[in-house]
């Protein structure tokens, strides 16, 4: 559960995720949905609606003493996510453990926000609903938990949000909550045009009725309607809030609030499991305390986090055994991995040099002046195809092929006497003879700089403390793509490679290089020289 560390600090599941094994032993209805993996870990199939419902009902019963019924054809809420929202409303209103009154717009069949808020904090809720099935289930869930004195479920017309619900109300509510329909149509609900094609499919099932998951214009227009109502109601509520399923909805809604002159606006992120949601809140009261938006510390930490990959023990041992083929005799597998990385970087024309490091690691300072690692595999395959299509020359009377023909040796012998038969597996950034792609203007400047005598020969790259240093020259200083520090560390039998960003134009280029280095190491073991 990758995002749990970023849950709300008071979320009970932040540091203690649900124990499926314990819950299965206590609740038979949940036990039948728990499976045991090959390593003995209890798991739940989150793509099974019945399993998700069983988990939600079990957590509410175990951790909050709540008993609910939810039909499979209506939205099945996840408890950690809803709990994050409740805790944020506590932050907005200063209402943790204090009596507060709120409105839940579209409470759903589970009526989960009012039930959590009432059971945890004694809050009073006005819960609105437009769907008949959801309305009936919500009333039943309130009654069977003896919460009728704190939660009032009301049926409202289809198009209404706040205005009709408050028409007969005279009190000033502390807040409103809303989990709006995310999608504008069936295609978006199925992920056809609402999801980036590069993202993996959702890890959980998408349940819910039409009114729960779809609205005209999607969540963006739905929340704009709440904003429109708030402009008329203004101080009838101290805080207006809503949860968003798409980060791209946040900026236009904040801009809409700015245009309308709303004085207090804030937002936050809800992180749980593999899911992220965003929330927006605004107020017309000048005396409210505005919680700060998510601190940039987490984003900065993510940006500073090194790129890492692990060379497993058997792979590191094989690279160590093959190190002699590149003229090296390292003493440890970590040194062998570093030697292979230096060879790959040399072939890719990435400037590098050894720098002082700790006793247990080897460090290289990398300076990339040209993107030579993109489409390497495609270029290598194209070169192989061109070689296969060359016409075969007739052999000379002596049986030797004509020089330069397709039957002639592809390369000369190396210093250790072995032929470069696997040159096809070595990095060949521009082996097809074509000019390299120039996707960015700064690369053109970098390429011009590499034509200087100080950098024309790849063998001039620094590969050790005793190697000659490369003089970058004044023209290279402003032309590099990025600089990073590469650390190679031995951990038990494995070798860990880390790449730390130093400076440059685009960190994505370092990500690409990291993947390229890892793939070359694995390919070397699969097809050794």
Automatic annotation (TrEMBL):
Its main location: cytoplasm. It holds the Pfam family Methyltransf_10. It comes from the Eukaryota. Keywords: Cytoplasm, Methyltransferase, Nucleus, RNA-binding, S-adenosyl-L-methionine, Transferase. GO terms for biological process: mRNA processing; positive regulation of catabolic process; positive regulation of RNA metabolic process; regulation of mRNA stability; rRNA base methylation. Coiled coil: none annotated. One of its GO terms (cellular component) is cytoplasm. It is an enzyme of class 2 (transferase). InterPro entries: METTL16/PsiM, METTL16/RlmF, SAM-dependent_MTases_sf. GO terms for molecular function: mRNA m(6)A methyltransferase activity; RNA binding; U6 snRNA (adenine-(43)-N(6))-methyltransferase activity. Residues 381-391, 427-450 have a biased composition (Basic and acidic residues). Its EC number is 2.1.1.-. CDD domains: AdoMet_MTases. S-adenosyl-L-methionine binds at residues 82, 106, 129, 179. It is found in: Cytoplasm; Nucleus. Residues 380-467 are annotated as: Disordered. PANTHER family: RNA N6-ADENOSINE-METHYLTRANSFERASE METTL16, SAM-DEPENDENT METHYLTRANSFERASE. Belongs to the methyltransferase superfamily. METTL16/RlmF family. RNA N6-methyltransferase that methylates adenosine residues at the N(6) position of a subset of RNAs and is involved in S-adenosyl-L-methionine homeostasis by regulating expression of MAT2A transcripts. Able to N6-methylate a subset of mRNAs and U6 small nuclear RNAs (U6 snRNAs). In contrast to the METTL3-METTL14 heterodimer, only able to methylate a limited number of RNAs: requires both a 5'UACAGAGAA-3' nonamer sequence and a specific RNA structure. This is U6 small nuclear RNA (adenine-(43)-N(6))-methyltransferase. It comes from Electrophorus electricus (Electric eel). The lineage of its organism: Eukaryota, Metazoa, Chordata, Craniata, Vertebrata.
């Amino acid at each position: 559960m990758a995002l749990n560390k970023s849950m709300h600090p008071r979320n009970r599941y932040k540091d203690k995720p649900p124990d499926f094994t314990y819950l299965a032993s206590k609740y038979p209805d949940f036990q039948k949905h728990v499976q045991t993996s090959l390593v003995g870990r209890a798991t739940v199939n989150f793509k099974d609606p019945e399993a998700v419902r069983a988990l939600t009902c079990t957590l509410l019963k175990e951790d909050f003493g709540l008993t609910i019924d939810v039909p499979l054809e209506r939205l099945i809420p996840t408890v950690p996510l809803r709990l994050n929202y409740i805790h944020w409303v506590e932050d907005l209103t200063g209402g943790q453990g204090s009596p507060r009154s709120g409105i839940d717009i579209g409470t759903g069949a589970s009526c989960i926000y009012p039930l959590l808020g009432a059971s945890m904090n004694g809050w009073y809720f006005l819960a609105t609903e437009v769907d008949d099935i959801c309305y009936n289930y919500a009333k039943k869930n309130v009654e069977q938990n003896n919460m009728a004195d704190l939660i009032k479920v009301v049926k409202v017309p289809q198009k209404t949000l706040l205005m009709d619900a408050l028409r007969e109300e005279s009190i000033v509510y502390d807040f409103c909550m809303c989990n709006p329909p995310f999608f504008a149509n069936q295609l978006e609900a199925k992920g056809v045009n609402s999801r980036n094609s590069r993202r993996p499919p959702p890890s959980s099932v998408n349940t819910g009725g039409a009114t729960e998951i779809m609205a005209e214009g999607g969540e963006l227009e739905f929340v704009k309607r709440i904003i429109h109502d708030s402009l008329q109601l203004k101080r009838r509520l101290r805080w207006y809030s809503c949860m968003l399923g798409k980060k791209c909805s946040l900026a236009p809604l904040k801009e809409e609030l700015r245009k309308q002159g709303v004085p207090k606006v804030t937002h936050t992120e809800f992180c749980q499991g593999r899911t992220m949601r965003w929330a927006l809140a605004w107020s017309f009261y000048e005396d409210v305390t505005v919680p700060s938006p998510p601190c940039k510390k987490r984003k900065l930490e993510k940006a500073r986090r090194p790129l890492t990959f692990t060379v497993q023990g058997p792979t590191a041992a094989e690279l160590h055994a093959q190190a002699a083929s590149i003229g090296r005799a390292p003493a440890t597998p970590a040194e062998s991995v570093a030697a292979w990385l230096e060879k790959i970087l040399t072939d890719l024309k990435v400037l590098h040099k050894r720098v002082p490091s700790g006793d247990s690691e080897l460090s290289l300072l990398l300076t990339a002046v040209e993107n030579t690692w993109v489409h390497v595999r495609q270029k290598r395959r194209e070169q192989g195809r061109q070689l296969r299509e060359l016409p075969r020359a007739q052999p000379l009377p002596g049986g030797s092929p004509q020089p330069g023909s397709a039957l002639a040796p592809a390369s000369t012998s190396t210093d250790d006497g072995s032929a470069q038969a696997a040159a096809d597996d070595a990095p060949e950034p521009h082996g097809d003879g074509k000019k390299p792609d120039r996707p960015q203007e700064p690369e053109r400047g970098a390429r011009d700089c590499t034509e200087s005598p100080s950098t024309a020969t790849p063998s001039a790259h620094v590969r050790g403390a005793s190697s000659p240093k490369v003089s970058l020259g004044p023209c290279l200083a402003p032309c590099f793509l990025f600089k990073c520090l590469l650390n190679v560390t031995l951990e038990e039998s494995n070798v860990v490679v880390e790449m730390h960003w130093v400076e440059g134009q685009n960190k994505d280029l370092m990500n690409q290089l990291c993947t390229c280095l890892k793939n070359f190491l694995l390919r070397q073991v699969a097809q050794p020289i």
